[in-house]
Each structure stands twice: as structure tokens, then as C-alpha cells.
Design a protein that fits this description.
The chain has one domain. The termini are far apart. The protein is globular. It is mostly helical. The chain contains nine helices and no strands. The structure holds zinc ion. Zinc ion binds next to helix 3 and helix 5.
Length: 183
């Protein structure tokens, strides 16, 4: 039950980002990493916010397949069907639910799920972050993955980082004969 209070913020971002470090994917597809990061955090942003106002259990409405589908379609239309934005967003959402398994109410509201309400969610989460090795070790792994991505892409300035998040630099440099971003 209190498993729902495991809250892997960094790990949730690091794992899907690392997928885009696979050379085959990196060379082939145009994608926006901002969208991926938003997607990979959105279920917790929504459900944990609801939890803070005493609504829900921390994993409810936004940890469902229905939410994934609806938010994907909405974003896809908002960005005028630009798949380099909507697909990474979808991928982030899917990864979030997979990483949260098995305590995810995937088929809510079509199937009823029982979660136990905890009186002090923030206290419990903070307690777990610093006392549950599974939580802090997972986050440390997440930090290491992010550091690897920074070094692997030579992201040493804010400008480089922003550009990296906005587009697939590798693909741009491959297509662009002037190769402005290559060191
Ligand atoms: Zn979650």
C-alpha cells in the first residue's frame, strides 16, 4: 500500500531519456526531449498535486491508460500533429506507468482499485526518500544516468543543454553539412 509513496522523480526522467541515447534511435528520429520529460513526470504532477489537496491516493486518475490516451490526443492536437513532440510525450507517459508497476490502477475507472489513504503523504514520502534504500538508491542511479547523458553529449553550458532538450542535435548535425554543433 505505502508503495504508492515511492516517488522516483529523477529516475522517471532519466530512464526514458536514456532510451534516446541509443545510437540507432538518435541517428534516425527527430524528437523533442522537453516533451519527453513533461510526459514522464505528468502522472505524478497531476496525482501528487491532487494528493496534496486531499484528493486521491497519489496514483489514481493520471496513472491510468485512459489518462495516457486522452492527454496524448490533446497534446497531439495542440502541437498540430507534430509527432516529434507528441510521440516523445507519449513515450514519457508510458515509461512512467511501467516504472511505477505493479501498483498502478491501469484500467481505472473500468476496474475498481483499492488504495489505502495515508494521513501524512509528504512526511511519508520524505521519510522513504531518506530511509528506504530502494528509493534513494534508485534516485542515485537516476542521477548517474543523467550525468552520463550530460557527458555523453558534452552538455557543459546552459545553451547547449537547452538546444539538446529542444531537438535531436545528432540528427541535425547529420543532416546539416555545415555541422555547426560538432566540436
Ligand atoms: Zn507515478
Amino acid at each position: 500500500m505505502s508503495e504508492v509513496f515511492k516517488f522516483f522523480l529523477i529516475f522517471h526522467v532519466a530512464v526514458p531519456l536514456s532510451i534516446f541515447e541509443i545510437p540507432l534511435i538518435k541517428r534516425k528520429f527527430e524528437f523533442n526531449r522537453f516533451a519527453l520529460i513533461i510526459g514522464s513526470l505528468l502522472p505524478d504532477i497531476v496525482d501528487k498535486s491532487l494528493l496534496l489537496i486531499n484528493f486521491g491516493y497519489g496514483r489514481g486518475f493520471s496513472h491510468t491508460i485512459l489518462f495516457v490516451l486522452i492527454s496524448f490526443v490533446i497534446l497531439h492536437l495542440i502541437v498540430k500533429r507534430r509527432t516529434n513532440i507528441s510521440y516523445p510525450f507519449l513515450l514519457g507517459l508510458i515509461f512512467h506507468l511501467i516504472l511505477d508497476l505493479p501498483e498502478v490502477p491501469l484500467f481505472y475507472p473500468f476496474i475498481a482499485y483499492e488504495f489505502i489513504v495515508v494521513e501524512e503523504p509528504i512526511g511519508l514520502w520524505l521519510y522513504k526518500l531518506f530511509n528506504d534504500p530502494r528509493v534513494y538508491l534508485t534516485e542515485i542511479v537516476g542521477i548517474l544516468i543523467l550525468v552520463f547523458i550530460l557527458i555523453n553529449n558534452r552538455l557543459y553550458t546552459r545553451k547547449e543543454l537547452v538546444l539538446f532538450l529542444k531537438q535531436n542535435i545528432e540528427l541535425v548535425t547529420h543532416q546539416n553539412t555545415t555541422e555547426p554543433y560538432k566540436v
